[in-house]
Amino acid sequence: MERLPAQIVAPPFMPLRFHTTMNPLLHVIGFSPTDRVVILHADDIGSSHSSVTAYAELLTAGVMSSAAVMVPCPWFPATAALCRQRQGDPRLDMGVHLTLNCEWDAYRWGPISTGNPASGLLDSEGYFHRREPAAQTGADLHAVEVELRAQIERALAAGIDVTHIDTHMLTLFHPRLLPIYLRLGQEYRLPAFLLRPDAGQLHRWGYSLDDAEEVADLVRQVEAAGLPLFDHADVMSLDQHENRLEEAVERLAQAPPGLTYFLFHPAVDTPELRAFAPDWRSRVADYELFTSAALRDALAHAGLQVIGWRAIRDAMRYE
């Protein structure tokens, strides 16, 4: 078995190997190479009360197969309580949205592990940095690992049956931070959301040429070691809110054979949401769309196989 980069070792519990023609995880979780398999993922749960309310309704009557909670946010306890109340519900599939940034101006949160500015995790106001580069290049690596570990541990201690980890604002998709992210996934035996892009794709996403090459090389080593990767990812836009059903149908139609991660950001319309989120209309539109019968009907005709993270986690833990 190929070795991963420094301090990352290939997990003994993962019976997967990747090759160029198909994603082998499809076979492990019961699909064919030509199946179009998608996770419909609700992001940013716990960032506001409106997101928790939306998530509760999606669990009951929505089109959703996974979600992730932001542990440092004020509404994390309410999310954890909801997960405990719904324990055993097969629709409950909650990960940890590992968070090192707070992008808003009027509504802020910060680390749960430290208040020390020397950690590099805090901005001049004492909260997480608003944008990704400050955390990616300025945070102390030990402090990053301590903080991310604390977020996972708090979720587990709160009674959440964590199914995966992913990364808020994709901050952890950086050469300095990616090894920590993957190492924690292995330690806790949790799949970590990761795409298999090449350097050219990463550069188009805004990475420098050097960083794009470094991340692409790390992803290749991860793939060779047998960790599950996604073939495709898409997200409902947050910069416009009209024609939401048409947008979702068009984006989902582009899902190729393999594993697709499809993100949306549901929230109910409240004064709180309007006060801090300039993109509140898109978040409310996501909630309304993913609780609608129209999207359910569209998915039924699209030929997509919808799964959650739990199937992938259980495949990882197979011995």
How would you sum up this structure, described in words?
By secondary structure, the chain is an alpha/beta fold. The chain has a single domain (about 25-315), classed as TIM Barrel (Alpha-Beta Barrel), CATH 3.20.20.370. About 40% of the residues lie in helices and about 10% in strands. The chain has 13 helices and 7 strands. The chain has helices at about 25-30, 50-60, 75-85, 130-140, 140-155, 180-185, 200-205, 210-225, 245-255, 270-275, 280-290, 295-300, 310-315, and strands at about 35-45, 65-70, 95-100, 165, 230-235, 260-265, 305. Strands 1, 2, 3, 4, 5, 6 and 7 form a 7-stranded parallel beta sheet that branches. The model is unreliable at about 1-20 (pLDDT under 50).
Which features does this protein show?
319 residues, alpha/beta, TIM Barrel, 7-stranded parallel beta sheet, 13 helices
Sheet with the most strands, sense and barrel status? 7 strands, parallel
Mean pLDDT: 89
**How many beta-strand runs?**
7
CATH architecture descriptor text: Alpha-Beta Barrel
Query: What are the segments in which pLDDT stays under 50 over at least 5 consecutive residues?
Result: 1-20
Structural class from helices and strands? alpha/beta
Which CATH class applies here? Answer: Alpha Beta
Strand proportion: 5-15%
Principal-axis shape equals globular
SSE succession:
HEHEHEHHEHHHEHEHHHEH
Number of helices: 13
Helix content: 40-55%
What is the end-to-end distance? 16 Å
- The radius of gyration computed from the alpha-carbon positions, rounded to a whole number of angstroms, is 19 Å
